[in-house]
Design goal:
By secondary structure, the protein is of the alpha+beta class. It is built from three helices and eight strands, in the order E-E-H-H-E-E-E-E-E-E-H. Strand 3 and strand 4 form a beta hairpin. The longest helix has 26 residues. It is elongated, with a radius of gyration of 23 Å. It starts with a strand and ends in a 5-residue tail after the last helix. The relative contact order is 0.15.
């Protein structure tokens, strides 16, 4: 699961969420190098002719396109969320790479999770409601992970408040 609960103190719990990363940066570099090397194989047949210079730019454009697409994907996945539950407060911080961070907090007693099975941007969309606002949590998780997250949030917010 790309999220983890931590007990930071006797009265404080922390939930950290991050998107799943199936291709680490080293794997991306190997993929781009492999595409380049396998793209060179057909060019061996035209080595030494003018046709090579006509085909080589297309190979380089495709490799650069793949590289830029992977980099854009890594930037888009550099998002994380931290939900801190103290004895009296629920505090959510949503970190993104470009926009900085967005924060939401309310009294823990009034905070409640809600699942929108349909009608949200993703199926089984999970939100937290409290203090007159509704904020999303874990929208980047898979559908099964959001269902599990919702069940865990219901349990954690109903636990007795430790002082």
């Amino acid at each position: 699961m790309p999220y983890k609960w931590n007990q930071t103190s006797e009265t404080e719990q922390e939930l950290r969420l991050w998107p799943h990363n199936s291709l680490p940066r080293r794997g991306a570099m190997i993929t781009v190098l492999s595409v380049f090397l396998f793209g060179l194989i057909p060019l061996l047949a035209v080595l030494g002719s003018v046709v090579l210079w006509g085909l080589l730019p297309f190979l380089l454009i495709s490799v650069l396109g793949l590289w830029f697409a992977l980099q854009a994907n890594y930037r888009a996945r550099s998002v994380s969320e931290v939900l801190t539950l103290t004895g009296t407060e629920a505090h959510l911080v949503h970190h993104t790479s470009g926009n900085g961070s967005q924060e939401w907090s309310c009294n823990r007693y009034w905070a409640r999770p809600e699942m929108h099975e349909k009608g949200g941007p993703v199926p089984h969309y999970v939100t937290l409601i409290g203090d007159g606002r509704e904020v999303e949590i874990g929208a980047f998780l898979s559908e099964d992970e959001r269902i599990t997250l919702y069940d865990e949030l219901v349990k954690k917010l109903r636990e007795p408040i430790a002082q």
